[in-house]
# Entry
Amino acid sequence: MDHAIKVSVFLGISLDGYIAGADNDLSWLSAVETDLPEDTGYNALMASIDVLVMGRNTYETVLTFGFWPYEGKQVVVLTSRPLAPLHGETSFNGSLRELLTELSARGLKHVYLDGGNVVRQGLQQQLVDELTLSWVPVTIGKGVRLFDGDMSMNHWKLTSHQAFPSGLLQGRYKFDKAM
Amino acid sequence: MDHAIKVSVFLGISLDGYIAGADNDLSWLSAVETDLPEDTGYNALMASIDVLVMGRNTYETVLTFGFWPYEGKQVVVLTSRPLAPLHGETSFNGSLRELLTELSARGLKHVYLDGGNVVRQGLQQQLVDELTLSWVPVTIGKGVRLFDGDMSMNHWKLTSHQAFPSGLLQGRYKFDKAM
# Structure
């Protein structure tokens, strides 16, 4: 990694590699919904980060939720179009790599990448330090792939793993090296 | 499943969903090679099956190995072209589903599907009962995907999991139901 800020990705993924179904369907995630929410480590990760970075599409989707799930966190939206901040979020018109350099220069230590496009950009450019994949025990057949386009060939170190009663299987990986 | 014979799949897969790299490169599998081979359960599975089914491409590749790894096992090659058996293997000109019906009628109880094409066909047609995926801790960027084309939407039950010192993370799944 050529940046000082730690970059984390934390995603649920189907066994066949999708992070969303056709038409952005997310109903398949209900396969791992349980009466008591499982502690997958997401909240701990959120508590450890300084800033979230997301693309415009993810941001627009979050706005439709009717509540702002990132209260108390810095949020930067990667976008070239004007943005009217509603919750203190800022926008950045440039590459993810440039943004990370700027966030690092501002003394920030830990960033969370949110949304398929930004995550994919981070993976393609070898900017991700920590990758947590939680495999949902479904095959959904079509949709939005996490890994798509020209990815590079990299080795990751499995640092921990955990299975949950719902059938979710989680692996935590640290970027090791290009192969 | 609409067949009496148990159908198992056991595959190594990259984090980004490939079972072979560009030009069928398999060198990335060396990422999980260790001095003492790890017991991933492959040998136990092989000992439990009656018959292997593979496609013509996989068969031709195996022939280049210089040795026959399936000694003592029935092997059926799905192919429409003539085949000159060298090790007692037989050929079947028809669909995987038809073959499974025939194998079942012959009293066989457990089949192993080998090779991307046949496995993909089995998954697409919901013929697979047991799916063991061993995630190799690499992203390879391009190649032959395990899950490709029109797959159906299915729920699987995680029956066990295991991580290995090499960083291999294995999940064993049983077909549960169509979603």
